[in-house]
Amino acid sequence: MTHSFVRWFALLLYCIVIFLFLDFIYSSLFLDNDKLRIRDKIFHHGLVANFDGYDAWGRNRPRFFTNNLGFKDTAVRTVTPRCATRRILLIGDSFTEAIGLPFEESFAGLLFQAGQRLVPPIEFLNAGVISYSPTLYYKKVKYFIDNGLCVDEVVVFPDLSDIHDEAVDYFCFDDDPNYHRYCKPSDLYGEKEHNRTFSKFLQSRFKTTDRVRLIIKHYLTYDEKRINKLYQWSPFTGWTAPGYDVGNEFRPLGVEGSISRALQNMGKLADFLAQRNIPLSVVIYPWPVQIAQNERNSRYISMWREFCVTRCKRFINTLPAFLAQKDAHADWYKRLYIFGDVHYNAEGNRVLFNVLANEFFGHSERAANQSKLLKQGTASDGIKSGL
Predict the structure, then answer these.
(1) N or C: which end of the chain has fewer CB within 10 A?
(2) Which pLDDT tens digit goes with each residue over 190-202?
């Protein structure tokens, strides 16, 4: 009995070692995505240019393309500095990058597709990358425009998490020397510490093993308690909730200092664009906790609305559209978000797109109908006139 157990255990161990070895070879040769996310000496981090591969986010492994500028795109392609048509630059953090989704399912990808079907077309470029915040929005937009990129409008998507980022990160990259005293040499050209984890190692070196792990984890943890945590304020998000104590999460600047810094850098971006006659627009959108808490007027909303009174071409508040989804569907979270996550799934991105389509193209239904006509090889008077 003991001999048989040892033999079967040895065989199992042998099979596991062979599986891991083959997984390592396969991941290294065919699915390597380590080169996608890179350090940058101007705006801290970004995406490598002309990437064709895959990205990992939880259970999702979407195909990922970047253009020659290092922006997430529909394919590897060359974006010319000159504007051949009207061009709108989008920038934000992981929500704008649409982490975990292919470009065509993201709101930026849907805008790109809809814009290309118009006559004349509108080109949407997506400069968003995970963990960006106002300091980096300003630095990145300024860098590309200073280096000759033609842009007709810039649309910023400030996230709920931006205030935390501005409180604790990117001090080495801020143009204001007052923040340089908080700069750490280790922060200069590195990614955030939370991105260098064991799970990231598995994702990059043992992708098949990691996918099996995540599938098992998904079914073992699929319960309402996990989701309910996303419906409650946390020290990370509670800065926008009246009376919530965020503890030490916002050191060294604190909530007030962070808000001041965020508005300062957004103000720099607005001034930079105004000098070049490029309009700025701001779009805000909700995390699950904001929908669950029925947030219709909060500091997150009011601070960006007030900022836009004199600074923006458009202020677009998409929270009502998401709250309408909650009112219409009891399972709104599963409909709109990646399970166990705060990021939108394809349907959540579609809701955001519909609001934006109404702003940039006219009524979303009209834009959809015109897209159908274009596919059929016909055009309405509205399309011919460019809306």
Answers:
(1) N
(2) 544 444 455 555 5
